[in-house]
Design goal:
Blueprint (H helix, E strand, L loop, with lengths): L1 H32 L1 E3 L2 E5 L6 H8 L6 E3 H13 L3 E9 L2 E8 L2 E8 L6 H7 L10 H17 L6 E9 L3 E9 L5 E8 L6 H7 L9 H4 L6 H16 L7 E9 L5 E9 L5 E9 L6 H7 L10 H17 L5 E10 L4 E10 L4 E8 L6 H5 L12 H13 L3 E10 L5 E10 L3 E10 L3 E13 L4 E10 L2 E10 L8 E12 L6 E14 L4 E15 L7 H8 L3 E13 L9 E13 L3 E15 L4 E16 L26 E2 L10 E12 L8 E13 L12 E2 L6 E12 L2 E12 L9 E8 L1
Parallel strand pairs: 2-5, 6-8, 9-11, 12-14, 15-17
Antiparallel strand pairs: 1-3, 4-5, 7-8, 10-11, 13-14, 16-17, 18-19, 18-35, 19-20, 20-21, 21-22, 22-23, 23-24, 24-25, 25-26, 26-27, 27-28, 28-30, 29-32, 30-31, 31-33, 33-34, 34-35
Amino acid sequence: MAQDDGRGRGLAQRVARSAIVVAATIWAGAAAAQSYSFSSVRIEGNQLIEDGTILTYLGIGRGEAVSGGQINAAAQRLRETGLFAEVDVIPQGGTLVVQVAEYPTIARINFEGNARLGDEQLAAAISSIERRVYSPTRAEADAAAITEAYAVQGRINATVRPVIIPRDGNQVDLVFEIFEGAVSEIERVSFVGNRAFSDGRLRGVLETKQAGLLRALIQRDTFDPQRLDFDQQVLTDFYRSRGYADMEVQSVDVQLTRERDAYLITFNVNEGQQYRIGRVDVATEVPEANIADYAAELRPQEGAVYSPDIVDNNVERLERLAVRQGIDFVRVDPRITRNPASGTLDITYTLVRGERIFVERIDIEGNNTTLDRVIRAQFRTVEGDPLNPRAIRESANRIRALGYFADVQVDTRPGSSEDQVVVDVDVEERPTGSLSFGANYNSDNGVSLVASFSERNFLGRGQSLDFRLNAGRRSQVFSFGFGEPNFLGRDLNFGFDLAYRRTDNDSALYDTDSFRIAPSLQFPISERGSLQVFYATEYTDITDVSEEASPLIQAEAAEGGIWTQALGYSYSWDSRRDGLDESTRFLLRFGQEFGVGDVQYIRTTALATAETRVFREDVVLRATIEGGLLDYNDGASRVTDRYFLGSRYLRGFDTRGIGPRDANTLDALGGNKYAVARLEAEFPLGLPEEYGISGGVFVDYGSVWDVGDLRGLDEGDVLYNDFTPRAVVGASLFWTTPLGPLRFNFTEALQSEEFDETRNFDITIATQF
């Protein structure tokens, strides 16, 4: 019976609840159907908010017929303003009573518990403002924004709690109580699906880095979703520049460790196969274009590993040819046919007629310091020109390459008519100058104090300015440099260099003074080639010569200070590029300086260097050959003019450690000729990549010789005046740090002479503070 009674009571309760719900529904429907009209509105409880403001949000006019539903909607509008803690709208006969309780005003906003992010940084992240109405919803959103700011810093466990402290006069202090938590670093970055390249090589491409020894300084070992998006694009570009045209990043798996103190990031990649360039030809849908002219302009590179850069360069050549021939609105469409069986890509460069669209104007925004003309100089397109999307993209890349901006966005939008577009350039500037004081050490010159100032965008004009003062025990150097990259409004770089150097030689019985002024002009003459021409005037003097010094040096010093004038040029061809370049790179440089006036000479220098990656690009091989020749037609060289090979040229020897010497005093005399060959390999040591430590081995071979005019000395008074080769082998440790790259060389001379000055270890360290 007790069980039956329980069932009966439960049934009765359910019936009663159903009746209440039905009654409430009927009442609400009746209220909504009822019509009201008010002759007046009475507002109660407001202190700061004006009656007119409340009436505006309310939206109910006097004498207007409204329903109960409209009254409820009006009350909801007032609540949604965020100005009131409570809102009641009550019909009382012909009067509509609006009762409100205002939120307090924020007197002060404080942050407590923050150490890693300053108050100014946090204040910039929130929307609550002092002396404005407090909103709980906004305060919660601000707490979330602060939490996100910490998450970007890698502190995903940070918590933020908004607290209000009541004050007199309906005011409150808003306090954000912060627990910052520890940094959640990136513990591991790994890859799945990569066969052509090792994890270590791919990690070197990414901007995101694993936490390493210098985790407090690197700032790239914390998780940032935006950086991860960039890394996916960089990884894709890396593969495609090496022939993997079908490569794609299928997914990126981001996981937190169980302790939530570290991230594990896995890139899932599908490499596809590597392609080479197969058949290359030209087709045209533009009648006035002669195919033969355009085929002659191509660099087909058939059989080479495919790279988008090859295609882009050919497209650019063909489009430029169309412009030179006066054929407007021509677009080159590279049509690629895949041949998976042979692993080749056939490319047909098709000339098609583009839309007749002109550039109406170029609008630039965000450049508070940089002048418009500096940015416009990067455009090959001006107002009124036919629109060339490729040229616009290249201009955007040139603007980014300036290094003046943290972000560059270049887009087009419709202009004033259908055949016009406006190019919008939106930039975000960043600091371009630096002032530093520091200490520098290298094995050649010892310790020196350094003060420098540099500005890459002087007065927003795109000009470079550089001062440097180096004061050490062995030498004092002052230098000044100025550069104008758009001289006379053209792609012409004007430079002006001034340098003064004084040496206090510990290893020689004399000192030197030199002063040089050299204005120059540099301009491109091919895609990767540039030519510099310059004029130089130089003063050199040999001072404080000891009576024990070589008679040759004493004779040269007796000539006093000498002014020389020179004209010269330097040609360079450089395939090295920032970012995702080819695995093999080259640099060629050749220059000559012609002395004129009282002293006539020709100084010739040449350098060729190559670098390639092997063994899945984990090992870097480098080879360099360089040399110099100083030949006098009138006059003779002095110790201030001749070559001395320091460790930068031939490792394992002191700055004046090899070359011609006085047989009696053993003073180093330098030589008019030098030649050096350097071979080296750099490879991983099996240490975690985040440490930035790799190893290397090298061999150097070369010599400096030929003093020239002996000024009365006999041939027997000079040692090693003929080509006398030296050879060195060694091992290196490379350490990439946020302070700069460090290199430690351990050397052993395989071939040296009796009076050479060797060294078994050298290091270059540069520290700024």
